[in-house]
Each structure stands twice: as structure tokens, then as C-alpha cells.
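Honest question from a wet-lab person: if I give you the sequences of every part of a complex, can you actually get the arrangement of the whole thing, not just the pieces? Trying it with mine:
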Amino acid sequence: MLKLQHIQKSFINGRTKRAVLNDINMEISKGDYIAIMGRSGSGKSTLLNILGTLIPYDKGTMIYNNQKVTQLSFDQRSEFRKRHIGFVTQQFHLLHDRNVYENIKLPLNFMKLEKDKIKKEVNKVLEMLDLESFQKVSISKLSGGEQQRVAIGRAIVKKPDILLVDEPTGSLDEESEKSILDIFDMLHSQGTTIVIVTHNTAVSERCDKNYFLKGGKLSAPIIY
Ligand SMILES: Nc1ncnc2c1ncn2[C@@H]1O[C@H](COP(=O)(O)OP(=O)(O)OP(=O)(O)O)[C@@H](O)[C@H]1O
Ligand SMILES: [Mg+2]
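Yes, you can. This is the full assembly:
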């Protein structure tokens, strides 16, 4: 489904150039439930952002269903992302002055769907994430765990081929953590391909494949 071949990525800070990813090879198949682990600063978010076509890389090839994403223009990449990728970033990036319903509906505004269909899809997600009673509440009034659920809702409402999630349990208590992880389990059982970046073993234990990122290199996957 999605393949990375010999991916390299460096960041330049002032005069120093630092390699973050060095010759990354990875293959994501349909239905995969993957955890990418590694210490803080090891490049996990960078790798996930590359998978989600949010940032460019320096060298290598990325292939999606036999098409080279590398060769797409900026606009084509954004179109690709809208159509295929659901992304829950580490900072959520929700619209704080809008309510829960509007935030989850957002990705559907870019699709040519009928009003009734949009309402139906958003309501389905609200129900799935237990957010019905919050739908009129603005984001700024929600707790971290509630915002996390809205961010997941926004990422899945368009039924993406791949769901990418960056550190989903960072600031959650054990019970909220479990309810978020149960949602991923459910989405996975419904056929969604999921890649989660985390340093939490409670997350990686639920996944079928675990990768480790260290010194810019990605380990061979451990498959459960
Ligand atoms: N836009 C940027 N410009 C310069 N350096 C960057 C940029 N983004 C990331 N880096 C550097 O790249 C390295 C990897 O960052 P990254 O955010 O991918 O780590 P991470 O594994 O996600 O860490 P964490 O677990 O803390 O979220 C870090 O040293 C970081 O400072
Ligand atoms: Mg990170």
C-alpha cells in the first residue's frame, strides 16, 4: 500500500546540518496496525509527517499503490493527503473557537457531499467516540482527552485509507488512555490501516507490528 525506500531527512539549524532519518525502509500493508517507537527526539514525528506528506524529505522514494508520491507537486500532495490520509498530530491542531461538530465536519467541507450525507457521517463519528453530548461545545472548553477524541473524529470522518497518529496518550490518565486505545482497536477491526507513533508500551502492545527508531535507523519490524 505505502512504501518508503531509502528515505533520508536532515534539518538545518543555523550552520549545522543534522541527519534525523538515515536510509529508512518501510512497507505498510492494508489492514496493518503499526507502532513506531523510539526515544524523544529520535525522529518519530518527522517520519510520520513524511508518511503523511506533510513535510518533504531529502532523498529516497515514497510509493503509494504503485504511484510515486515523490513526483507529485505541492498541490497534488495536498490533494493526495485529503483523499487518503487521516492525521492526528501531536498538537491536535483543532479550531478552538469552533464547536466539536464543526471541527469533525471540517474535512467533509472539501468533498462534494450532500448536506444530509455530511450530517449522517458526522453523527456516526460523534456516536462512535461518545461525543454526542459535546457537539455544541467549543474546543477551548474541552479537556485534553476530549480534544484528543475530537482530533481522532476529524481524522476518521472521511474514512481515510491510512490513519496516522502521533503520540495519542501523552497527557492522558490510564482510563482515558484505555478508551482511546479501544477506539483504535475498533477502527483496526473495521479494516482501517493504522500507524501510531508512541513511547508508551501500552499502545505498542495492542499493535501487530512494532518498529524502533534509533540513531536515524528503523529496525526490522517485530511482528506479533
Ligand atoms: N522543523 C525542524 N527544524 C529543525 N529541527 C527539527 C525540526 N523538526 C524536528 N527537528 C529535530 O529533529 C529531531 C527529531 O524530531 P522529532 O520531532 O521527529 O522527534 P520525536 O521522536 O517525535 O520526539 P518526541 O518523542 O519528543 O515527540 C529533533 O532533534 C528535533 O529537534
Ligand atoms: Mg514527536
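Two things worth pointing out. Residues 11, 13, 20, 38, 40-46, 167 surround adenosine-5'-triphosphate (ligand 1) (CB under 6 Å). The first strand starts at residue 2 and ends at 13.
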